[in-house]
Amino acid sequence: MHSRETVERALRLSSQGLIDREVARLCGVSLGAVQKWRTGARRSQPEGDLRHFHSCPLCHGRALDHRAYAHLLGLYLGDGHILLCGRGVYQLSLACCDDWPGLTEEAASVMAEVIPTSSVSRRRLRGCTEVKSYSKHWVCLFPQHGPGRKHDREIVLDEWQRKIVEECPGLFVRGLMHSDGYRGTNRIRRHFNGADHWYEYPRYLFKNESHDILNLCGQALDMLGVA
């Protein structure tokens, strides 16, 4: 038996257009279970009114998944943007490198977790995939949105955002690294005992034009004990 939360999440992801195999992988369940829940053969109806999923955590007091939000905040600050599409609906867009498809799916997943019933879609571009979601409340959740590029304006977290980053600094850094960072292998040569010796270790880099965002990354790394 799967928990009601798992069933509800699978149904929400299916309603957003994800194929059954993707839903099964994201929820950690079998393909058959997702198919039965979606078709109603073995559907566990969620309790209460699902309209609360459409509401905004800030405007209406709906619970916000702090772990998913910390991750998504890092993704947005690193390489995301918000556009007004008309009628008060905003598009949150993230550009994800096609070399790492698992990170693209992870971005889509946390987007769906933050506003569960918002439409999440993907658009193939040259060398990358755009992951985007539509909601009237993305600008509520990301008050750093504004005209022009991020590095041309001040980027300061609201108090409620700062508390979430302090609670989940690792996920915030994960979002930054996965959107505008790099991990490679650093190889070092040392000569001793008459011969060259090599050792290697993973190296993480984060590059951003905004000094404010660089400082936020550094503060989160300090919380994690990373010099």
Name some characteristics of this structure.
four-stranded antiparallel beta sheet, alpha+beta, single chain, 2 domains, Endonuclease I-creI, 227 residues, 6 strands, 10 helices
Write down the Rg: 20 Å
Number of domains: 2
Helix content: 40-55%
Please report the total strand number as a whole number.
Answer: 6
Portion in strands: 15-25%
- Calculate the mean pLDDT score and round it: 86
Q: In CATH terms, what is the fold-level topology of the largest domain? A: Endonuclease I-creI
Structure explained in plain terms:
The protein is built from 10 helices and 6 strands, in the order αααααββαββαααββα. It has helices at residues 4-15, 20-27, 31-39, 57-60, 66-79, 101-114, 138-141, 159-167, 169-180, 211-223, and strands at residues 80-86, 89-97, 119-125, 128-135, 181-192, 195-206. The strands form 2 sheets. It has a 4-stranded antiparallel sheet with strand order 1-2-4-3. A two-stranded antiparallel ribbon has the order 5-6. Helix 5 packs across helix 8 (159-167).
